[in-house]
Design goal:
This protein is an alpha/beta fold. It has twelve helices and twelve strands.
């Protein structure tokens, strides 16, 4: 029997049941949205052909990105390529030096790209990270964060890189940075691997600092790899979410509670063509 011969009321019932099943499934999913992606994941592809790499990313269903490199393009040229594919750059990552010394240029490029956030990953330091280096960063973040917000309508976020978790008083130097920066102008991007690597529970950080976190890097650490406070490990130790050491469901639940605005997959390995799709599949398999 064809659909045309079915009673209209039965047709309505079939479609309603189908819609209800989809709705129920989405309602039970812990992470129903499509994650974003950090451009560094496809850095080697971008260096060869920006347009083709964006096509590859769009084919995965990804439309939200964080760029920390223009890959030889001007900001207007990159924005045009993004717009043509319906992809948004929500966060623009820059070097510490550019943030501090080229603030106006950074802001201009971020706004051209359509970004809401300007992000820095890492703080200049020599050897073991010190209180003095943390204080210098705190002053820079408060000053530049205010300029970005009040003069350009942009939000500054700092991305942890593992070395910041040196013990300090009753916590860590990372705690010192969070507590000493102005919550009106300085927010944070939590890289969950670079919190876990020095022995910190990312979910606990999210519960502790709540809405100071706006962005997140989703990545997992290969089983058996020991951590430390160096902020360094082989890129091949990045594995698909759910196959490594991190408790991803607990982290996602805490992130939802904290109000994370953008989740970006970051995979630094040479196996991204296999691992990124596996990560997306894993996220969509998680239940509340």
């Amino acid at each position: 029997m064809t659909l045309k011969k079915l009673n209209p009321f039965i047709l309505i019932l079939i479609f309603w049941i189908g819609f209800h099943d989809i709705y129920a499934q989405n309602g039970n999913m812990l992470f129903p949205e499509m994650p974003g992606l950090v451009s560094y994941t496809h850095r080697k592809d971008f260096e060869k052909d920006v347009a083709l790499t964006l096509d590859k990313i769009k084919a995965l269903g990804i439309t939200d990105m964080e760029f920390s490199n223009l890959f030889g393009k001007t900001a207007p040229e990159l924005r045009k390529l993004l717009d043509e594919r319906g992809i948004k750059c929500s966060s623009f990552g820059v070097s510490y030096n550019d943030l501090v010394n080229k603030t106006a240029e950074v802001a201009q490029n971020a706004k051209i790209l359509g970004a809401e956030y300007v992000r820095v990953a890492g703080i200049p330091h020599k050897g073991e990270f010190t209180k003095e280096e943390a204080l210098s960063a705190i002053n820079d973040f408060n000053r530049v964060g205010k300029i970005l917000k009040e003069e350009h309508g942009l939000t500054f976020a700092y991305h942890n890189h593992g070395f910041e978790f040196q013990p300090y008083k009753d916590g860590t130097l990372y705690d010192f940075i969070v507590k000493s920066t102005n919550p009106k102008y300085v927010y944070f991007e939590l890289d969950i691997l670079w919190a876990f690597f020095p022995g910190i529970d990312p979910a606990e950080l999210l519960n502790k600092y709540g809405n100071r976190y706006k962005l997140m890097h989703l990545k997992d650490l290969r089983k058996g790899v020991p951590g430390d406070m160096s902020g360094r490990t082989s890129p091949e130790n990045d594995v698909a979410l759910g196959t490594g050491q991190l408790d991803i469901p607990s982290i996602i639940r805490a992130a939802k509670k904290a109000g994370i605005q953008h989740y970006y997959i970051e995979d630094e390995s040479s196996n991204i063509d296999v691992q990124v799709p596996k990560t997306i599949e894993y996220l969509r398999s998680l239940k509340k």
